[in-house]
Amino acid sequence: MSVLELDGLIGSHPLGALASFGLLRVLTRQGGEPRLYFEERDDWVARIECEHASVDDLIGILAKWSRSSRDELLSWAKADVRVPLEEYRAVLARALGEDHELANFLSALAADGAVDKSKGLIKPTAFYMASGQQNFIETMQSILTFVREAPSKVWREALVGPWAYSAPIWGAGWDPGTERMHALRHKAPTKDKTSCVPGAVWLAFEALPLFPSFTRDGRDRTVGFVLRDRVRHWRWPVPIRPVTLDALAMLVSSREVASATEARRREGIGAVYESTRSEFGQGYAVFRPARRIV
């Protein structure tokens, strides 16, 4: 096993953490038993224990994998995640019988049973931050297309850095650094273009099955989010001992992380961070810069 230093993935950053979790999930599904942890330097930097000898080898594996990944997932909904409940349940039923990986994503993308009363559409995960002309599924299709056009460059940017925001695509609202607060900027909104780190956003998308959505008392909920003063906040752990995917899945859904108690130190967690899901208008949202709560 090699230990690969991934200086582009920072555990205190919501997109960096989510991308790190997604990378562990991708590598686990390819075989072996990789492990993830973070080392504290100026910040929490991701480390992966895996069978690949170097970061270059890892980038090559991801480049090959991304050429054929996820087309079936991105074609499940013609419009977006928010579809009529009956349509969602029909697709989920087929996936449960034919494609468990697709079923895992579907269970993460929407909360079965929670429906928008005005339009009758299923309510999406709290990681869904699109509104208006934005389309979550189409955004992921665009990002995957961009990744496939220059995979080596894209994966190096995401894993090693620096993050150059190489894709002129909306980044799903997961990166606080891309929030455009126009009253404080030198450009007019019409001239201020969107951008993202496509490899990081795609790996973050791969992490979503770690955070299933569900319904409680008719309301949608997403694992990892806490509700305070009617505002949702995502909390995540920064493991300092190598963890497998199964162990990480337990940590991100644990009571210790949700309540941010000192008991988390017994679990090999170096810190717990929280990022506010700041919502604007009719559902558009963005993660705000994280704060360390433990």
TrEMBL record:
This is DUF4238 domain-containing protein.
